[in-house]
C-alpha cells in the first residue's frame, strides 16, 4: 500500500477547513462538520487499505492487521469533536498524528506483528450534550450515554443514529472492535507549561479529576422600575453573588483547583424585567479527589444558604471524573525513547480531561503532549509550532514501533 | 351606533388569548400576536363607526368626531406591545379601558362636542429592539426610531413596514393625526403601593427618569482545565464582579434608585471554556435626574477601572428618559372626580416609564393607576382585581366627559 509521508499538516488543514476559520472549529458531535471529518478519515483509511470499522456511537477505527499476533492490538488516537468555537489541534492532532505515525511505520517497515489501530472517538468535550467521553465510554463498555438533549432540544440518540447512517458505505464494517492491550494518546498540552519550559514533549503522569455542575436559581420575575430594591427576588443577582462566593471558596481550598463558570442563561433575559430564573455551570478540576469532595460539599452548603424562601437553588452534578494515574511502564519507555530521539521533554499532569482517562480502565494507557503557544486552547487562537507537531508524531511512531514490531 | 356596555374584561381576554397563557403575553412590537391585537382593535373601532387611522409606526387611532369643535381632541390610551413573557394588563388595560370609556360615553350622551380619541401606541417597552416609546415618539414628532435590529438580526424598519401593511384595509386611513389638547393614560401601577394602601385609584404626580446601558466585557476565551486561575482573563468573572460593585454603588446613592441587570449574554457560553466575552444591560431609574447622573458617572469610572489590559470594558447608553412632572390641573380635576365617585385614591410617582412621558411634551397629560396584586408586573402572574379594573374606567370616563362634552 503506497503511503505519502508527511501529510500531517495537509490533513489537519483539510478537516479544519470544514469549519469557518473566522469563528474557529465547530465540529460538535454528530453535526455536519463532524460527519465530514469522520468521513474524510474513513476515505484516507480505505485509500490506504486499512480495515475500517464504525461503532454505534460514531467512533471510527482504522486497523492495520498484524501478521503474527493480529489479536493483540496496539492503539493510538483521540477525538474528532471540538468545543464551540474551538481550535485546530484539540483532539484532531491525536487522530491525524496517529494515522500519520501508523502509515509512516507501514511504509518503512511493512506489516506489523501486532495490529496497529487508529481510533477517532466520536465525542469527548461534552460541549453539545450534557455528557463527556461518550465515545470512549461506549468503546470500553463503561457506559452508553443516552436520553439527553442539546440546548436546542435535539435528542442525543436520534441525531446519533442519523449521523452514523451517513458514515456507512462499502468497505466500512459496523461494530465495536475488541479492546487493545495499550493506548497512546497524542495531544496538545492546552496549557502554558511546556512552552514556558521550552520543551517539545510532555510525558503525562496523571489526569486531573473533574466535576461539572449546573446550578439553577429560581427567583421571581418582576418589573425593573416599580419593584423596590428591598422587595426583589432577583435570580441573576443571587446567581452573581453565588458565583463570587464559590470562586472565593475554590481559591481558598487550593491554588491548583480550577473553577470556571462557562455557561450562564437568564430568563426572560430582557433589560426591563427582573430575572426570574438563572442557570449556570461550574467546571472544577484537581489531581486530588479530596479537594474536589471538599469543594462539592461547600457548593451544596452555599447553595442551601442562598435558598431563602421564595428563592429556590438547585445543584445538579452531571460530570464526576476521578483523577487518573497513567501507566508508569509506558511512561518510562517513552522517556527513554524521547532521550534516544534527542527531544527535550518534561513530565507533567494534565489539567484537561482526555479519552485516556476512560481507556486507562481497560488498557495500559499513556499520553504524549506537545506545547500550546501561550497555553491558549479551546479558542480559535489555539496554536502549536510545526516542528513540535512533528516531534510528537516522531515519538509516537517510535513507541508504536517498539510495541507492534 | 349600538354599544354593548361592560365589554372590558371580554375584550381584554380576546386579545390576551392571542398569546399562550402558560408563558404569558408576548406581543412584541410587529410580531404576529401584536398584529392580531391591533387588527382586533381596528375591527371594534370600525364596527362601532369610529374613524380609524394607522400611522407609519403602527399606532392605531380610533376617533369619535366632535360635533362643535372637532379640531379639539381629548385623547386617552396606552400601548399594545408587551415585554417577553409579560402580563395581561400592562398597556392593554389602558387601550381597552379607554375604548370602553369612550363607547360608554357615546352610548349614554351621544356625540361629544370635542373629538374623543383612543390611541393604541405601537411600542413602549423596548423589549424587542433597543429603543423605547417608538410609537409615541413618532406621533409627537419627537423622534423617528430607525436603523436598529432585534437579537435575531431583524431590521426594525423592514419588519415595521411588513407589519403595518397587514393593518391596512377598507375603512382604515393611513396617516398621522393632529396632536390632542390633553392625554389621559389609564394603566396598572405595576408596583405594590396601591394594594398595600388598599386604594383603588392612583393619581400620578410624576414619572421617574430612566437610563439603560449595555456593558460589554472582552476578555480571553481559554481552556477551563489547563489555564491557571492566576493566568485568566475571564469575561464572566469580571462581569460578575462589576455587577456586584455597581449594585452596591446604586444602593449607596439612593434607596429609591432602582438597579436591574435584566439581560446577560456569554460567549462562547459552553461549560468547559473560560468566557471570552460577556454583555449585560443595566436599567436604572429615579425621580431625580441628579441621582441618575451620579450613577452614570460612577458606572463609567468603575468600567474604566475594570479595563486592565488585555481586558476591555465598553459602556453604551441607549435609553436616557428624563423624569417628568405630569399636569397639575388635570391631577386636581381627577382628584375631585375621584372624591365625587367615592373612590379611595392616593397620589404617587410612577416607577415605570410610560407613553405619557412623551405625550406630556405636546399635550396636558395625566395618568390614572389601578392596583397590581402583590405589585407583580412584567410577568405572567400580573393581576388586577375586577372591581379595580372597572373603577379605573369609571374615573377615566368621568374625566373624558368633563373635558369633551
From TrEMBL, chains A, B:
Domain of life (superkingdom): Bacteria
Presence of the UniProt keyword RNA-binding in the record: no
Keywords noted in UniProt: Hydrolase
A family per Pfam: Peptidase_M20
Keyword rRNA processing assigned: no
InterPro entries: Amidase_Cbmase (IPR010158), Bact_exopeptidase_dim_dom (IPR036264), Peptidase_M20 (IPR002933), Peptidase_M20_dimer (IPR011650)
GO MF term list: hydrolase activity
Location of the Peptidase M20 dimerisation domain: 209-307
NCBIfam families recorded: hydantase
Similarity comment text for this entry: Belongs to the peptidase M20 family.
Protein name: Zn-dependent hydrolase
Organism whose genome encodes this protein: Lentilactobacillus raoultii
Amino acid at each position: 500500500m503506497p503511503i505519502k509521508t508527511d501529510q500531517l499538516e495537509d490533513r489537519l488543514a483539510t478537516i479544519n477547513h470544514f469549519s469557518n476559520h473566522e469563528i474557529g472549529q465547530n465540529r460538535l458531535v454528530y453535526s455536519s462538520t463532524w460527519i465530514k471529518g469522520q468521513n474524510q478519515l474513513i476515505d484516507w483509511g480505505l485509500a490506504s487499505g486499512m480495515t475500517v470499522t464504525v461503532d454505534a456511537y460514531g467512533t471510527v477505527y482504522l486497523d492495520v492487521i498484524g501478521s503474527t499476533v493480529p489479536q493483540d492490538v496496539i492503539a493510538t488516537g483521540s477525538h474528532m469533536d471540538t468545543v464551540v468555537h474551538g481550535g485546530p489541534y484539540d483532539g484532531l492532532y491525536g487522530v491525524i498524528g496517529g494515522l500519520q505515525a501508523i502509515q509512516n511505520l507501514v511504509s518503512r517497515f511493512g506489516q506489523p506483528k501486532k495490529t496497529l489501530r487508529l481510533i477517532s472517538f466520536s465525542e469527548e468535550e461534552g460541549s453539545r450534550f450534557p455528557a463527556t467521553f461518550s465515545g470512549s465510554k461506549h468503546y470500553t463498555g463503561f457506559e452508553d450515554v443516552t436520553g439527553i438533549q442539546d440546548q436546542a432540544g435535539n435528542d442525543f440518540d436520534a441525531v446519533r443514529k442519523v449521523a452514523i447512517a451517513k458514515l456507512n458505505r462499502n468497505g466500512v464494517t459496523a461494530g465495536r472492535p475488541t479492546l487493545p492491550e495499550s493506548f497512546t494518546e497524542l495531544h496538545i498540552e492546552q496549557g502554558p507549561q511546556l512552552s514556558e519550559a521550552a520543551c517539545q514533549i510532555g510525558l503525562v503522569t496523571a489526569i486531573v479529576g473533574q466535576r461539572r455542575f449546573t446550578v439553577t436559581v429560581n427567583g421571581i420575575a418582576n418589573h425593573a422600575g416599580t419593584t423596590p430594591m428591598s422587595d426583589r427576588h432577583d435570580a441573576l443577582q443571587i446567581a452573581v453573588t453565588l458565583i463570587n462566593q464559590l470562586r472565593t471558596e475554590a481559591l481558598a481550598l487550593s491554588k491548583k483547583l480550577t473553577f470556571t463558570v462557562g455557561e450562564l442563561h437568564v430568563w426572560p433575559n430582557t433589560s426591563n424585567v427582573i430575572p426570574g430564573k438563572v442557570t449556570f455551570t461550574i467546571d472544577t478540576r484537581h489531581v486530588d479527589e479530596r479537594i474536589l469532595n471538599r469543594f462539592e460539599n461547600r457548593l451544596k452548603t452555599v447553595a442551601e444558604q442562598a435558598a431563602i424562601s421564595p428563592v429556590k437553588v438547585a445543584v445538579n452534578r452531571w460530570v464526576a471524573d476521578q483523577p487518573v494515574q497513567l501507566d508508569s511502564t509506558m511512561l518510562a519507555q517513552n522517556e527513554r525513547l524521547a532521550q534516544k530521539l534527542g527531544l527535550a521533554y518534561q513530565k507533567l499532569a494534565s489539567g484537561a480531561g482526555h479519552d485516556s482517562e476512560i481507556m486507562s480502565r481497560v488498557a495500559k494507557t499513556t499520553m504524549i503532549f506537545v506545547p500550546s503557544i501561550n497555553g491558549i486552547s479551546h479558542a480559535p487562537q489555539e496554536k502549536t509550532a510545526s516542528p513540535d507537531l512533528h516531534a510528537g508524531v516522531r515519538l509516537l511512531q517510535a513507541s508504536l514501533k517498539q510495541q507492534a514490531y
